[in-house]
Every structure is written in structure tokens, then in C-alpha cells.
Design a protein that fits this description.
about 20% helix, PhnB-like, about 40% strand, 2,3-Dihydroxybiphenyl 1,2-Dioxygenase, domain 1, single chain, Glyas_Bleomycin-R_OHBP_Dase, alpha+beta, VOC family protein
């Protein structure tokens, strides 16, 4: 499944509420940074705990968008990321190796508390890809 993933800097919740109202959409899921299990390798400041870690909004019968508040400055970088959800670690690793060549890794493809593998990379053409293997 391929889904547009919108990246925000502290305004994801506000934006998704507007999109929900505009499309009479259904908020399928919303998780805040404060909902994450504590991790010393990824500390969350108190004033960031209410930011959106991941949101899923159903806009139409078959149309969905995802979004979150990121940890980097998005000025000059895209707000849209292509989210690729795969059921094969091998397929994900193959695509990851190709896309990271000449690009920039934002988050290494690695196991997380919510997926077998998850990571984010910008390819050499400036397109940002987010991988999740469930």
C-alpha cells in the first residue's frame, strides 16, 4: 500500500482537524509522542509530548492520508512523504538500499516498537520515502 504522508512542524493536529472537517473525514488513528514507551535513545521533551507521532485520516471511501510532526526543520524540504507499507523485510531492504544510494537517511531502517522495520530516506532526487514492514 502506498499512502501520502504529510510532515509538519508542530501543526499536524491542527491541520488534520481542518482536513477532517473539509472532507467530513474519519480520524482512524492518532498517536502522540507522549504515547510512546520511554526510550533513552529517543527522548521526548515535555513540551513535545502532545505533538502528533502518527495520524491516519480517511478522506474518502478509498482515500487516506497519514501525517506527523517531525523532528527536523521542513523549510525548503517537502511536507509530503511517500509512505510504503510492505509485508516483506527482503523487499523493503532491497528498495531501501537502492533509494538511499546518493540520498540522505533520516531514520535508519530498523525494528521499532510499532513495526518489524521502519525508516525514512530522501532519495537523490529529493523524494522522501518512509518504509514500514508489519
Amino acid at each position: 500500500m502506498i499512502t501520502p504522508y504529510l510532515m509538519f512542524n508542530r501543526e499536524c493536529d491542527e491541520a488534520f482537524k481542518m482536513y477532517q472537517k473539509a472532507f467530513d473525514g474519519e480520524m482512524v488513528a492518532i498517536q502522540k509522542y507522549g504515547d510512546m514507551p520511554p526510550n533513552p535513545e529517543f527522548p521526548v521533551a515535555e513540551n513535545d509530548k502532545n505533538l502528533v507521532l502518527h495520524a491516519q485520516l480517511k478522506l474518502t471511501e478509498s482515500g487516506m492520508i497519514y501525517g506527523s510532526d517531525g523532528q527536523r526543520n521542513y523549510e525548503g524540504s517537502p511536507k509530503v512523504t511517500i509512505s510504503v507499507e510492505l509485508d516483506s523485510e527482503e523487499k523493503a531492504l532491497n528498495a531501501w538500499e537502492i533509494l538511499k544510494e546518493g540520498g540522505s537517511v533520516y531514520m535508519e531502517l530498523q525494528p521499532t516498537f510499532f513495526a518489524k522495520l521502519h525508516g525514512s530516506v530522501q532519495d537523490k532526487y529529493g523524494v522522501t520515502w518512509m518504509f514500514t514492514v508489519n
